Amino acid sequence: MVPMSVKLQQAMIQFNGAFMEGVESLKDGVDILWPQKALRVDMPGVEETVYGYLAEMPLFRRWEGERQPKRLRSGSYSLKTAKYEVSYALQADDLRFDRFGIVAQHMRGYGIAQRRLYEDLINEVQANGTTTLCGDGQYFYDTDHPSGFDGVGATTFSNYRTGKALTSTNIISGIVLMSGLVDANGKKFKIRPNILEHSTGDLEAIRDIFLAENTAKAIAGALGVEYVGGVSNTGPRGLVTPVENPELPTGTWYLHDTRVMKPFLLQIETEPSGLEMRVDPTDPNVWDNDEFLFGAKARCGGGYTLPHISQRNEA
Fold first, then answer.
1. pLDDT, tens only, 226-258
2. CB of 296 within 8 A of CB of 272?
3. N or C: which end of the chain has fewer CB within 10 A?
4. Residue burial 192-204, b: 16+ Cβ < 10 Å; e: rest
5. Within a domain: residue 226?
6. 187 contacts 154 by C-beta, under 8 angstroms
7. Domain with 237 in it
8. Within a domain: 197
């Protein structure tokens, strides 16, 4: 009979391997989208941070007299990190009766959960943007943002549009709206949306908008006939890149400008730990509950940058 200590060692190796397999199974740009729209800020040892942003575009001016330095308007926006954990209890009987091979498959899922921590956090921040305040004191997605921070700027703008189905016309009007936004001095922010984030439920609309002409050409080629047009695509193709996010509800889509700054913040105090194990036979939990504990932990937080560079649209 294999000693429990040997079985435990085997389980630890198998669990760790399965956990890391789960972590590595998700691919950037397909399963993990947050790096495309969130700015990562590593702040070890810092629980809460106050962020500030320029209310004016940094532009060169003719140097006459003294310099005119720009200063950040910090407002009252702060971002606080929180602790996250995922844990699993392995019953001693699972080892005794050689059931830990089945449990290893669950560990793969725990690895996926660790890999998705930041993704899920930024998705939640984005979804809550209609009810969560950002740096100018408004909800991040709102209809009456001041053109500058702290109420600075004579004009207001909206980055939250309703009644806007995912159509070529609405995409272009959204791009035009964002591109025309101005700073506290009335100068254009030079915003140029480059990402269109959409749901899986809107895939058909995306294909019609972005791939219609390509599809017609491909069909003509397959039939061995000359493509003579008839399916025009003079809309937003080439202006923005469609990015599918399965977590979005059907009918909700976003335009982001991520070229210089990104609309969301990911503040990391402590990276996910990887699989930690409490397997010492003298551990009180082993004595009290006849089980071994496995898990991972992290500390991070999500927030917002400029509302000017992201637009939420709902059908």
1. 545 544 445 687 889 999 999 999 999 999 999
2. yes
3. N
4. ebebbbbbeebee
5. yes
6. no
7. 4-55+72-314
8. yes
- Residue 61 belongs to a domain: no
Angle at 196 between CA 121 and CA 305, to 5 degrees: 50
- The tokens 């035009």 sit on which residue? 176
On whether residue 308 sits in a domain, the answer given is: yes
Contact present, 130 and 312 (Cβ < 8 Å): yes
| Helices and strands: H and E segment counts in the chain | 7, 14
List the one residue out of 158, 191, 176 whose CA is nearest residue 57. Answer: 191
Report which secondary-structure segment, H or E, holds 146: strand 145-146
Higher pLDDT, 101 or 42: 42
pLDDT level of residue 55 (50, 70, 90 thresholds): low
- Are 294 and 109 in contact by the 8 Å Cβ rule? The answer is no
**Which pTM does this prediction carry?**
0.86
**Residue range 60-76, pLDDT digits in tens:** 778 989 988 877 665 66
**DSSP of 218-235:** HHHHHHT------S---S
